[in-house]
Design brief:
The protein is an alpha+beta fold and 99 residues long. The protein has helices at 32-36, 42-46, 50-59, 71-75, 79-92; strands at residues 5-15, 21-28, 60-63. It has one domain (5-92). A hairpin with a 5-residue loop joins strand 1 and strand 2 (21-28). The protein is globular, with a radius of gyration of 13 Å.
């Protein structure tokens, strides 16, 4: 069976407004629309790097204890967790050469 969802554990974890830490999550494989939709967003037009925030919020289907993963959640993550998620995204979508 072809795997389309992958579990991950954030190095630090997302700390929400109530002080709760969220580390376990699930990311699905990216679809073409996940890459196209952010290009229409005005935040991406003024800051192309923001596309990463939108893409990750679309492909992370679960983050323990949260109802949804929004761009605001991604914005609130520690830099090391964002870096981890970017690398994880590239690895599961085979955007990096195999080592």
């Amino acid at each position: 069976m072809f795997q389309t969802e992958f579990e991950f554990t954030l190095p630090k974890g997302y700390l929400d407004a109530d002080g709760l830490l969220h580390r376990q999550g699930i990311m699905r494989l990216s679809r073409t629309m996940d890459e196209i939709v952010p290009l229409r967003d005005p935040r991406v037009k003024t800051n192309p790097a923001y596309a990463t925030v939108i893409i990750l919020s679309r492909v992370i289907t679960q983050l323990e204890g949260l109802d949804e993963v929004t761009p605001a959640v991604i914005e609130g993550m520690f830099a090391c967790d964002l870096n981890y998620l970017q690398q994880f995204y590239r690895r599961i979508n085979e955007l990096e050469p195999a080592e």
